[in-house]
Amino acid sequence: MIKRFFITGTDTKVGKTFSSIALLQIANKMGFKSIGYKPISSGSEFTKYGLCNNDALLLKKNSSVKLKYNIINPYNFLNNTSPNIISKKINKPISFYKISSNLRYIEKKTNWIIIEGAGGWFTPISENKKFSDWVLKENIEIILVVGIKLGCINHSLLTIEAIKKTGLILKGWIANNINIKTIWHNEYINTLKNNICVDFLGEIPYLTKNNKNELWKYINFTYF
């Protein structure tokens, strides 16, 4: 059976990639054939391999099964803005069919897929479609990444309420410390635990050295 998890966040820049890497590392340690999939990315750079997004490259690096870049990141935009804006600007519409076709290919190669979203749950990808519409279409389990900061409680509860209305399974949530701990850190975490009625999968600390090699140790294996 293939395990598929869609990683969404309470906002952009809250640690979806770090959390995705941690989950890929767990899969590798458990003996799964893992692949990280970043269907849509914005904010990329020109490299010797062409236009590449750093988050997608990190997912590729931490996957045990290596696939071509254009498979794991089919929609890759240079400018760092909402996908619906940049795709319209350069006349490159985002197709659910393309994203799903790549997912079907990936499913033949693996038994553990971490799919990293873009921005938050309701990120638009066109004038009338949101990324969440595709997740619903594919019926993928969701893991929520909460960036611990002022406002995260409200952002978390609103996101969870929106997910619950779809009927999709929310597997659990991960706390990611995007800043050095404040005096209210423990109160934020405890309030979130008391109000989020799904499993708390772990807490990733604020990493000053940007060490991504052992992110797995901050996630609880037993939930998988």
Q: Descriptors for this entry?
A:
224 residues; alpha/beta; two-stranded parallel sheet
Descriptive notes:
The chain has 224 residues and is of the alpha/beta class. Strand 9, helix 8 and strand 10 form a beta-alpha-beta unit. The longest helix has 15 residues. It is globular, with a radius of gyration of 17 Å.
Task: Set out the fold topology.
Layout: E1 3-9, H1 16-29, E2 34-37, E3 40-42, E4 45-47, E5 50-52, H2 54-62, H3 69-72, E6 75-77, H4 83-89, H5 96-107, E7 112-120, H6 131-138, E8 141-147, H7 152-166, E9 170-176, H8 185-195, E10 199-204
Helix pairs in contact: 1-2, 7-8
Summarize this entry quickly.
Helices cover 36% and strands 23% of the residues.
Q: Kindly report how far apart the N and C termini lie.
A: 13 Å
Number of helices: 8
Q: Give the total of beta strands.
A: 10
Mean pLDDT: 96
The residue ranges in which pLDDT falls below 50 over 5 or more consecutive positions are none
Structural class: alpha/beta
